[in-house]
Write a structure and sequence with these properties.
Layout lengths: L2 H15 L3 E9 L2 E7 L3 H9 L7 H8 L2 E4 L11 H6 L5 E7 L5 E8 L6 H17 L8 H5 L1
Length: 150
């Protein structure tokens, strides 16, 4: 199986677990992911982007301050700009985020549902998939000659 086929298989699994969509940012370096995938409603993505929510998103801050997983409803999260309330109006009523990897190559991924909280078992499965995606997309430590020239 090719790496891309493996990624596609894992993304399909995540799609079934997160019926309202997801955002996956793999190996974020210098504020940009090397690879990203998102399946949220385009109306939400446009609203989020137009309002610059990435700079105010509690999950962005959480994802760069720790690793592991967290539900969006966790009392430890602060949402002073009401982003979660806005997201709920677009169907993202329940969510969770996974962060892994070193800070120099962090992966941050969020997943949403509209019907109920994610179960502990679902969270464990999602986190395992995210870790596999992070590992299978690990860029090489050294660049090839062609990469250096590019």
């Amino acid at each position: 199986m090719t790496i891309q086929a493996g990624i596609d298989l894992e993304l399909r699994k995540l799609g079934r677990l997160a019926p309202q969509g997801f955002y996956i940012g793999l190996h974020i370096r210098f504020t940009s992911p090397l690879m990203s995938y998102q399946t949220y409603d385009p109306a939400w993505v446009n609203y989020y982007t137009e309002n610059g929510y990435v700079l105010r998103d509690p999950m962005t801050a959480w994802g760069f301050s720790t690793t592991g997983h967290i539900r969006w409803s966790d009392d430890r999260l602060r949402d002073p700009f009401g982003l979660f309330k806005e997201a709920a109006t677009y169907g993202l009523k329940y969510g969770m985020t996974v962060a892994c990897g070193p800070i120099r190559s962090r992966t941050v991924c969020s997943f949403a549902r509209d019907d109920r909280e994610f179960t502990d078992q679902e969270i464990a499965v999602i986190e395992a998939i995210v870790l596999r995606l992070h590992d299978m997309t690990e860029p090489p430590d050294e660049l090839t000659r062609a990469q250096v020239e590019a």
